[in-house]
Amino acid sequence: MLVLIAESKTMTACDDQVSVSTDNKPLLDAKANELMFSLRGMTAEQLSSAVKISLPMARRLREMIYEFEDKRHGARAMAAFTGVVFKAFNPKSLNECDRAFANEKVRIISSLYGYLRPDDFIKAYRFDFTTKLAPGNISMSGYWRDDVTTLIKNELERTGDNEILNLLPADAEREIDFKKLSTKAKIVKAEFVEMSEGNSGRTPSANRLKTLRGELLRQIVTEKIERLSDLCSLEGLNYISGDTMSNNNTIVFTTA
After folding, report:
1. Using CA atoms in the order 140, 132, 55, 76, what is the torsion angle rounded to 10 degrees?
2. What is the per-residue DSSP string for 148-185?
3. Are the C-beta atoms of 144 and 27 separated by less than 8 Å?
4. Which residues, in sequence order, are CB contacts of 57 under 8 Å at separation 6+?
5. What is the pLDDT of residues 119-164, one digit of tens each?
6. Strand locations in the chain (E)
């Protein structure tokens, strides 16, 4: 089972020193380099407008663009992202066996790098999937769609996996052509339903939803869950799954 999660907008300073090799170099690193290089002519004001961030943050992004080619400093992808999902996942507390499992089974969908393994060495950036700064004035998700879909297809063929667990938000999903992948794997989306008084269900708040995704990811990694069928009777600290997957390839986890 290949598990897909999305990047977070918040990242660490990425100041570790790591020797970059073919084992930890992002698979689409060359295209990410080209993309960042193409943005060097933009002013902070232009970046602020295009990425929809504050001017001070845009100035920092401009520094990131110019620092991007210096690969002496950065961070492993799983440690670099610090958003709600990754805080709940808590990668720093994983043991060596857990980290090896995550590096084999978990993939991070990225607006700048496209497709990342947890151990890939990356530089800091600040974009999102809807940012229209890719060549041709297209969104980042549109720019990476073909490449990322092909890499997932190749991963499935390499590992023999025929199942995908989708833990992605809607904007990250647009970076993948799931229709093309449906001939190669069973694709199941995890959804969470918060039960309220009267036993009626509702979608959790955005932050709560991210936390639950991170907790589920941690349970998958620490318990070495490799099949979608093993999720159908799964019980976590804050959720419990249904017994069966619905016809629309969704597994529902309920939470109080």
Report:
1. 10
2. HHHHHHHHHHHH---EEEE---HHHHTTS-HHHHTTTS
3. no
4. 48, 126
5. 999 999 999 999 999 998 999 999 999 999 999 999 999 999 999 9
6. 2-6, 75-76, 106-110, 114-116, 121-122, 163-166, 186-195, 201-202, 240-241, 250-255
